[in-house]
Design goal:
single chain; 0% strand; 6 helices; globular; mainly alpha; 131 residues
Length: 131
């Protein structure tokens, strides 16, 4: 599984678990990990750790997004866009080996696939304020 594929799987799972409380999140995470077709244990551990960390930090990430997203609050954003912004912001703040430009570009590319026509520009605009 490539880094892009890992990121996409993390995005899909984060989107799904965002609709659950803590208990439901654990159940959904376990279902995802059980179905994950990644034989490499190091990658599996990385994926699970990253999912847990982003979920744990979502309130902090949302507060930072609310600060920078002029005219928008996270509670009004499309869930797809919000999850993409959270994921990229997490990578920008907490994963030193991922350049900010890469995190932003990957979020924009995923927005092109999974969100509305204006989403790539919106996601890019919000994330650019963190650079």
């Amino acid at each position: 599984m490539t880094r892009r594929e890992i990121r996409e799987q993390i995005f899909k799972t984060l989107f799904q678990i965002d609709f659950y409380d803590e208990e439901g999140m654990e159940e959904q995470l376990q279902l995802f990990m059980d179905e994950l077709e990644e034989p490499n244990e190091k990658k599996r551990a990385y994926i699970e750790q990253k999912l847990r960390e982003i979920y744990r930090l979502r309130v902090e990430l949302d507060a930072a997004i609310d600060e920078k997203a002029t005219g928008w609050k996270t509670r009004r954003m499309a869930k797809v866009d919000l999850v993409l912004i959270r994921l990229a912001l997490y990578e920008m703040k907490y994963e030193a080996d991922i350049p900010s430009g890469v995190a932003i570009n990957e979020a924009v590319e995923l927005a092109k696939i999974y969100s509305s026509d204006g989403a790539p520009s919106f996601v890019n605009g919000v994330l650019a304020k963190f650079v």
